[in-house]
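no rush on this but wanted to send it before i forget. what follows is a protein written twice so to speak, once as letters and once as structure tokens for the fold. mainly i need to know what kind of three dimensional shape the backbone takes. thanks a lot i owe you, the record is right below.
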Amino acid sequence: MLSSKNPFENIRFIYFDLDDTLLDHRAAEQAALADVKAAFPDVFAHVPLEKLLHTYHTINTELWKQYQQGTIDRPALMHARFARLIDALALRNVTPDQLNACYMDRYRQHWRWTPGARDAFLTIAKHFPVGILTNGFAAVQHAKLARFPELRQHTRALVISEEVGVAKPHPALFAQAARAAATEPAAILYVGDSFGSDVVGAQNAGWQVAWYTPTPPASVPEGVFTFRCWPALLRQLGL
């Protein structure tokens, strides 16, 4: 049982973010980019891997902000991130579509749970109804759930931003998720890694928040529980 002072004592439904919370998107992204570099040795001959990783991440992060704000759509994002990479690194004899196709193929080969997430997810799913709330592309996120049957088996509600039409932290997405869970907002816990998308969005929706942040943040908003490893979340939930 949770103590009377624990803000999670009234939780009745737990949503999880997918990328970089349950699944290690960043590691898969970096491994896929290394594979892309290896697949086009002449194109990337002058580009160190670290420069490729940093440049791509910077470009992709900015484009995802635009995607979440609704100013660009999925095809535009997927094309622009490699078109801008080609320009930034002065790449020759390759197209954005070629790089994107190679990247997406290799990205799928590197999907893994974040350390400790699988056991924690399965433990929590024994005691609470659980769901997935994610900003990822619908086809990719469905493929991830198919790859990891434990996720599909235990997920009571699946809410993907592309299928709803708005992205986190938009309040309409959290409202849709609350309806899908058939649970009052104050009784929902959201577990996610992104401050801007997950913490801000959940707090504004009136949900409780567990912020997964392996690197300690400079500051933590009042009422937000943070954890660096999954056993800490289990302890907070009394499991």
User: Anything to note?
Assistant: Strands lie at 13-16, 130-134, 155-160, 188-192, 208-212, 225-227.
